[in-house]
Amino acid sequence: MGFPHASHAKETPVLSQYFGDPAARTVAGWKQRGGYVALEKALGLTPAEIVNVVKDSGLRGRGGAGFPTGLKWSFMKPGDGKPHYLCVNADESEPGTFKDREIMRWTPHALIEGSAIASYAIGAETCYIYIRGEFTEPLAVMNAAVKEAYAAGIVGPNAMGTGKRIDVHVHKGAGAYICGEETALMNSLEGKRGNPRIKPPFPAVAGVFGMPTTINNVETLVAVPHVLNRGAAWYKGMSHSNPKSTGTKLFSVCGNVAKPGNYEIEMGFPFKDFLYDLCGGPTPGRRFKAVVPGGSSVPIQTMEEAEATLMDYEGFVAQGSMLGSGGVIVFDDAQCIVKHIARFARFYAHESCAQCTQCREGTAWCTRILERIERGHGTMEDLDTLLDLSEQMTAKTICVLSDSCAAPIVSGIHKFRSEFEAHITGKRCPMGATAAA
Amino acid sequence: MKVHEVGGGRPGGDTSHAEHESGTYKPVFVGSAKQELDELLTRYPSKMAALLPALWIVQHERGWVSDDAMAEVAQLLELTPAYVKGVVTFYTMYHQHPVGKYFIQVCTTSPCGACGAERVVDALLKHTRCGELGATSADGRYTVIEVECLGACGFATPVMVNEEFIESVTPERVPQILSQYL
Amino acid sequence: MADAQQVSLTIEGRTVSVPAGTSILEAAKVAGVLIPHYCYHPGLPVAGVCRMCLVEVEKAPKLAPACATAAAEGQVVHLYSDPALDARKAVLEFLLLNHPLDCPICDQAGECELQDYVYREGRAQGRSHEPKRFNPAEDFGGDVLYVTNRCILCTRCVRFMQDVANDPVLNVSERGDRAVIGKFEGKDLTHPWAANVIDLCPVGALVSKDFLNKSRAWELDRTPSVCPNCTQGCNTILETRDNVVVRMRPRTNTDVNHYYLCDEGRMDYRWMNRTDRIEAPLVRHGDRLVVSGWDDALRAAALHLNGKRAFVLASPMLSNESLWMLSRLAKRSGGGGGFRVRLGTEAPLAGVPDLVRRAERAANVRAAELFGFARSDTPLAGMKDGDVLIVADHEMAAADASAIAKASAVIVIGTTMPELVTNAIIALPSTNVAEEDGTFTNLRGRVQQYRQARSAPGMSRPVWWSVGDLLTFLGERAGYYLASEAFAALAAQHPEFAGMTYDSLGLKGQALAGAVAGVAGGASA
Ligand SMILES: Cc1cc2nc3c(=O)[nH]c(=O)nc-3n(C[C@H](O)[C@H](O)[C@H](O)COP(=O)(O)O)c2cc1C
Ligand code: SF4
Ligand code: SF4
Ligand code: SF4
Ligand code: FES
Ligand code: FES
């Protein structure tokens, strides 16, 4: 549902059905709403059977990379004699993205259920839910729910009375966007600086504590009980454009839009309809100017591109961007694109873990150049320099934070070059006071 | 508004020097805090993994993480103080200096910026009399800092006052919000 | 078909075969290609952070970090393709962004990998117009000064302290471009091997306080040597400026010291420059020692020794050649010899097997024992009344005074006049480790060469030379002109050294036949 707004008729509320319903937060409430049936069913299947259903469903990771979930699980080899771990990525820090927060706030047991199923499917007895430290309310809700789930015997040494051990622990982050990167999260969980690791080895071989590990995003995991309950075919049926993108997806919408919030739609939904109908279009008197559709790390879209997009992994790529984390950031005609691109760059400069030269120095340098342009002190050469630096920050580093800084810069300069040039030739921000919103 | 360094400063300023608690240091991990840590240690296959949670306990008990506390945590988890400090300085939420009674974090990342976050910051600085970002008000009550995306962009502008998460803050709401934190 | 354990790949047109699991960077070394790198160091865990070693691997989707990418069968690697060159040029520009470029006052200048690669592959002109960040320098304790602004955050120093020294006193603090290397107040770099971070630092960010502003790198002469300061036998480079030893640094030998030196050994070089030296042969005339020529002095010594037992107090810091020659002198007269070794605390380097600063603070204890010198706290106890005592650069202790009196005569062969010896009849000037060619045998029986680094003062000669001539005067032909000749003669007489020559020793040494196989003694290549 379009939380905090009422559900729109064109939405398909599966994961978001109980957003805003505090009664769904308890074990009893969750069971009344059909909860923990899937877990019970899963524990009666073999891990391989679960992996196959998830594979068949076409479910792909909702954390940003869109990796097929069943395939990821199949890399784990139950019975190899090593402890396995599940890490739940609830670090949600990508600007524009706030869906996992609502999932945890309203349906904590959905996450526990999905995590328990995944743990069993990958042969893990321990699951860590890594929640960013700023999420005080989701943390409190999740902690209470985990406690209740232990008390009810749903998880613990004898999960659902099956004799299987599934421990679930909530781990609180401490302020670092980079800890959303999967290997940085593992380092952080181990009590280290949140530095991404060089791959290989991949987490399925040597993840957290050096052991085989699977990491999934919150939204990915909460989809799993539904897949088990209603079948792979049902899930796969929710696909309206490319068959490789299936199911429902939560999109967080923010920025200059009439009804910001979380909307759940089926893959392939027309983005134009989404923006103007579900989200209520621009605020009164304004027009949309640009959209960053998948969190701040993806290329910016012009409205032409956005309005031609069908919302799935391939659809966003076809229109010059990416689905990413599903965080839709909308800018209207009162906004200065240069200012926002500079602000994105500042975000990455702040969050760079500092390991890689290109990222540590490049993110800060780009920020300084962009902010200088925004203040009216830029030159045309600065634009060339920015494009060159972006090129050198792309595909050269340990993780893609560096690339993420570059993507909005490159797309911004290519798609909104006139705005950059206006700052340079006019020696000031042409939007003046209005740009402050 | 003050243009600060890329990446932003930390509240209280310079972090390169040791900060000690005044008087003789009293260990944090006694009584229930120690029990809490002992319970935490059962959750992980290594002691080191309890570092972030242990630092949270320190901050909860003392309001900030002093050098003395880092040394105490290091000893308990069989780490070196230098290691612990390297970790503490990585994460933005651990205070390495005392902060105001109410620590106020305002998101100013683009999505919130597009919805007027800067004016919320201005209003907070004005009404708390902090004057500038990172500074603590003369009465010791408030410290205001800008932070990056709080993961609530649809509820611009989110503001955190200590552990409280307040959504959809506008400059107009600021005085009324502050009146609850005196 | 390639061996299952070997993979072959082509790097810059050269095909090499390396064991599976070797990194492209190491494989390139085998091919004779140096891939520029900063964070990689063979003694440290791979970090893969500086991104300087990016190379193009055909058919790979993006450039690969050569230090962190395993060589694979059939790989074709390009170091000088445009994408690889551009990537390095960019890394260098990024590294210089906040770098002070204070080469004129930086001790690293001339041996700085940043300077070298920027000169080779960097842009002629940086493009940044932004102000540089500035951080003050910080004393890290021990011998180490951290010049923050020059740091490229390669983390070698942090990894050394953490993974090799097992004493993580350094950290990376903060993140983004605010990141610096940090330590905890009150916890200094006092680990006994900490100064190695200075050598490991590829730039001038960690500099030696001892060496600060002493010399420009290009003014130094460098000579391969061996640390004389304990029985470990770490391989060194002696650096001299204007004939003065100004620095001792590790020389890589993975059979002995890997890439490292202990702090105490490294710092203990000043005595090599002592100026209170015996500079000419001296012969006693009445109550005075008078300068004489070598022949006169040797003839006088021979006269005193003829028909007498010689007891040799030999320093365990002397070379194999010298100890052997001295042992001949003792043996031919039916005499004996002994030595005392100064003891200190042991200090292992945790991450390297069998690398320890040894308690015995002299290099050649093993050879001294091998050649029949008895190790004792009272080495003169073995001397008989009426023996001629030869003090060969051996330090004297107060307890020795009474024993000296029993000698019929005292002959000194040494660098300086030993304390407590007041009645020497003859003193022959000798060279120290920096002033001669020679070999030591370490505690694991590894024989290693060192070379002359500074000129010998006055008329001084290596001990083996003067003693060889003395033997000749006594009728036992032992005149050698070169240390290598003396060593060859030694090797011919002692089966443990059988087959060894200076050529076969090379610069890495060889283990004695039947030496206890320890890592430091090592099997030599
Ligand atoms: C810089 C960076 C930040 C990321 N942040 C998050 C995040 O906050 N939450 C998340 O689920 N995935 C995040 N990811 C993606 C994760 O690395 C990983 O792909 C994901 O957690 C895998 O789960 P999934 O397969 O279920 O999507 C981030 C990746 C990068 C490179
Ligand atoms: S790209 Fe940036 S964030 Fe990622 S590992 Fe490198 S320095 Fe850290
Ligand atoms: S001080 Fe030197 S070794 Fe340490 S990180 Fe900086 S450049 Fe590297
Ligand atoms: S360990 Fe011994 S040989 Fe090595 S540097 Fe130290 S004193 Fe010299
Ligand atoms: S941008 Fe402000 S909460 Fe995300
Ligand atoms: S040497 Fe390979 S990344 Fe630094």
Short description:
The complex is a heterotrimer of chains A (437), B (182) and C (525). With 437 residues, chain A is of the alpha/beta class. Chain A has helices spanning 27-32, 37-43, 47-57, 69-74, 99-106, 108-122, 136-151, 182-189, 218-230, 232-237, 271-278, 303-307, 313-318, 337-351, 357-374, 380-392, 401-415, 417-426; strands spanning 84-90, 124-131, 156-159, 164-172, 213-217, 248-255, 261-266, 269-270, 288-292, 301-302, 310-311, 327-332.
Q: What would your notes on this structure say?
A:
The complex is a heterotrimer of chains A (437), B (182) and C (525). Chain A has helices at residues 27-32, 37-43, 47-57, 69-74, 99-106, 108-122, 136-151, 182-189, 218-230, 232-237, 271-278, 303-307, 313-318, 337-351, 357-374, 380-392, 401-415, 417-426; strands at 84-90, 124-131, 156-159, 164-172, 213-217, 248-255, 261-266, 269-270, 288-292, 301-302, 310-311, 327-332. Chain A has 437 residues and is of the alpha/beta class. In chain A, a hairpin with a 5-residue loop joins strand 6 (248-255) and strand 7. Chain A is globular and about 70 Å long. The model of chain A has no long low-confidence stretch (mean pLDDT 97). Chain B is built from seven helices and four strands. Chain B has helices at residues 31-41, 51-62, 67-76, 81-88, 110-113, 117-128, 174-178, and strands at residues 102-107, 142-147, 159-161, 164-166. Chain B has a four-stranded mixed beta sheet, with helices on one face. With 525 residues, chain C is α+β, with helices and mostly antiparallel strands. Chain C has helices at residues 24-30, 82-97, 113-121, 156-164, 196-200, 263-267, 294-305, 320-332, 365-370, 400-404, 463-473, 483-493, 502-505; strands at 6-11, 14-19, 54-57, 64-65, 76-78, 138-141, 144-146, 170-173, 180-183, 206-208, 221-226, 235-241, 244-250, 282-285, 288-291, 310-314, 336-339, 347-348, 356-357, 374-375, 388-392, 409-414, 426-429, 438-441, 446-450, 510-511. Residues 517-525 of chain C have low confidence and may be disordered. Chains in contact: A-B, A-C, B-C. One iron/sulfur cluster (SF4) is lined by residues 178, 196, 352-356, 359-360, 397-399, 401-402 of chain A.
